[in-house]
Automatic annotation (TrEMBL):
Residue ranges the record marks as coiled coil: none
Domain Cupin type-1: 4-119
SMART domains, per database record: Cupin_1 (SM00835)
Name of the protein in question: Cupin domain-containing protein
Pfam families to which the protein is assigned, alphabetical: Cupin_2
InterPro entries hit by this protein: Cupin_1 (IPR006045), Cupin_2 (IPR013096), PKS_Associated_Protein (IPR052044), RmlC-like_jellyroll (IPR014710), RmlC_Cupin_sf (IPR011051)
Source organism superkingdom: Bacteria
Amino acid sequence: MLIRKLADCPEFIAGDQTRLRELLHPDKQPINLRYSLAHAVLPIGQTSLPHVLQTSEVYYVLSGTGEMHIDAAAAVIQAGDAVYIPPQSRQFLRNIGSQPLVFLCIVDPAWKVEDETVEPQ
């Protein structure tokens, strides 16, 4: 059995400028898992950098309100929403609420640095 506690996962700034804690990754734990799972926070008033993944991604919003941009489409997302982001889609997220935007990121297959292109600031 593998149990990962969020508090035990070090926080870092991801390439898209979100605060991230990696919970599960098959390259970092002895697990047979195809996807990776991370906990992300986008502070009030901030916008993640536009980026493209070669893999699919799902955001599941735990709290807060954001404006999700995928290619030319935009929509407001909030707690309880799951957002599918197709491979090779340009994406970014803006926190438009009054509290941090907290969400889970599921990347399938598991996230790799070489699979992500982040636009410069």
